[in-house]
Amino acid sequence: MRLQARGGSPGDELTSKICTATDAVARFVPDGCHVLAVGGMHLHNNPMTLVFEVIRQSRHIGRLVTSPSASLNADVLIGAGLVGEVATSYVGFEHLGLAPRFRSAAENGTLKVLDLCEAAITHGLLAGAGGMPFAVLPQGLELADVWRANPECYRMIPDPFGQAPVLVVSAIRPDVTVIHAAEADKHGTAWLAGAHFTDRIMAMAARTVIVQVERVVSTDSMSRRPAGSTVPGFLVSAVVEAAGGCLPTSSHGNYSYDEPTIKEYLSMARTAGGFEEWISRQAPERLAGVRAQ
Amino acid sequence: MSDWAVAELMVVEMSRNLSAGEVAIMGAVSSLPMAACRLAQETHAPGSWYVAGGSGAVNPHLSPIPDSSCDERLLQADCVLPLPDVVMLEGRGDVFDVFFAGGLQIDAHGNTNLSHIGDVAHPKLKGPGGVGLPFLPLAGRVIVYTMSHDPRTLVEKVDFVSGPGFLGGPAEWSRKRRGGKGPALIVTPLCTMDFEESTLRARIRSLHPGVTAARVQEMTGFDLRLAPQAGIRETTPPSLRELEILRRIDSAGLLKRAA
């Protein structure tokens, strides 16, 4: 695989992580990827260019992990039949409605849903990022039914320091994380504009990170970003420049979500046939832009 | 006079429950609670705070109110917390005084379900999932709200507890309760409910103008145990001042369109 470099000083092509979505997915997302985490929350910052490319290359995913609230990112991967199980606390479209392919697959039994709570995803990712085998959850969360329905991820154990048992969640260690950022430099250092949701910790917990960005910028401009708003390049394997690459979801700092297109999706994706038609209409458009790089 | 939309009345009802200095939090699809918190800040509860769900925005300035709880416009706020910080603080149990919650099902003891209807392995309806609802027992109190007051939504017992209310009732609640006081209100398009102290069951606290108790019972899937002669007061409609402020906050008229 030859990665494309752009500009810069001689020798940069040796270290540049900039490549096309096609190359990034071909190289870093194996078919049968055990755990893939997808960034973005609700209708925002969904890394759709990479998601559509995973679909185009038919990469099957053992377990899809989402932020506490997934949306189009998870629904299309599930709709494409690529997801064995999904670990999530929400897949939906907020005020626009339920997630049609997620719902259908869960109700038909073709998708295993590992229901988590927001705390389990967040603390599970932090545990993954910190090398801890599991995370202890706040007492009180055991009163909900969520943990009982998901013994694969949750356990109740004795508190070594106290009396009452404590609820724990296994660490989340994605093999691959795909996220969107506003900007990155060619070394992979990425800056997240607006809200970060769980995208940064998803990147920190993963073995391999692919970042799609609105723009590739110089390392100079990256060095002035505030602490806590970046993902360091040493964690990132590939940078894909994809302007508009979150559409039809929003990209904080860049554009809002495209509500008519999402509504059209929700209407068409009520049937498997409608879903296929929508995806075949959307994906080539995105991929054309990516290929043109 | 009913020159207001029912969602506006619901916002005013929720707003009146908030007090100065309190800190509130809310999750997905939170236009109503966001408007309620902002209205409270501008009327009777100055110095109250609210955190707009997954955006991490603290006191978003709103106007207009966005539909999505993670909209970038919410970041025009007093400050913005990273989501993992919000999740940590939710776990402390002594930070958030009020948690706004909804559900596909809400039951007589104020438990909520956003996960699924029917059996967990073969759900009749797979809902989106409960996100932060398991944190409810750690919040000071819970304000439950729904735009769907019907027997499918308001049920005797939820199929799955995403957000714990008073669990199975007084015995289980007193055994298992955490720091929080549990659900305080259920606000719907027909009425406002609170909970009877002895049974911890929801009951009608006030009827929205033009709604009868019989109508509420007809649309509710659990027994409200209405006394035949009991007089139930009417929900106080929004005042002109409340409406004026609310419509300035809701400059896009989102609440008027809510149904």
Walkthrough of the structure:
- The complex is a heterodimer of chains A (293) and B (259).
- Chain A has 293 residues and is an alpha/beta fold.
- Chain A has one domain (15-291): 3-Layer(aba) Sandwich (Glutaconate Coenzyme A-transferase).
- In chain A, 31% of the residues lie in helices and 20% in strands.
- Chain A contains ten helices and twelve strands.
- In chain A, the strands form two sheets. In chain A, strands 1, 2, 3, 4, 8, 9, 10, 11 and 12 form a nine-stranded mixed β-sheet that branches. A three-stranded antiparallel β-sheet of chain A has the order 5-7-6.
- Chain A is globular.
- The two termini of chain A are 16 Å apart.
- Residues 1-8 and 286-293 of chain A have low confidence and may be disordered.
- Chain B has 259 residues and is α/β, with parallel strands linked by helices.
- Chain B has one domain: 3-Layer(aba) Sandwich (Glutaconate Coenzyme A-transferase).
- Helix content of chain B is 23%, strand content 21%.
- In chain B, the strands form three sheets. Chain B has a nine-stranded mixed β-sheet with strand order 4-3-2-1-5-10-12-13-14, covered by helices on one side. Chain B has a three-stranded mixed β-sheet with strand order 7-6-11, with no helix packed on it.
- In chain B, helix 1 (6-16) packs across helix 2 (31-42) and helix 2 crosses helix 6 (240-249).
- Chain B is globular.
- The mean pLDDT of chain B is 95.
- Chains A and B meet through helix 5 and helix 6 of A and helix 3 and strand 9 of B.
